[in-house]
Design a protein that fits this description.
Elements: H1 3-18, H2 25-36, H3 41-54, H4 57-67, H5 76-90
């Protein structure tokens, strides 16, 4: 896992947050970054968030398990806030 990879993920997720966590180009950018780093927990967590946004709970739960996380009951924005704090500690 590279610091630049984490920075790319944070930047892409910030873009997705700015678009109110909706499907579109920002979602696709996050998804592609996460797919490129499959098997690395922070990226698997991002992948889970993508599928949560998509409404594919089964697939989201698969990626949450891979990331060692559980799908929360809060909003995606709240989850992003927690994730962003955890990612900041990795940089």
């Amino acid at each position: 896992m590279t610091i630049s990879g984490i920075a790319d993920l944070v930047s892409a997720l910030d873009g997705l947050a700015a678009s109110s966590f909706t499907m579109g180009a920002e979602w696709q950018a996050v998804h592609e970054i996460c797919q490129a780093h499959e098997g690395e927990a922070p990226f698997d967590w991002g992948h889970a968030i993508c599928h949560r946004i998509e409404g594919d709970d089964w697939n989201a739960d698969y990626w949450y398990r891979r990331a060692g996380k559980r799908r929360g009951t809060g909003t995606v924005a709240e989850e992003w806030s927690v994730m962003k704090a955890e990612l900041a500690a990795l940089r």
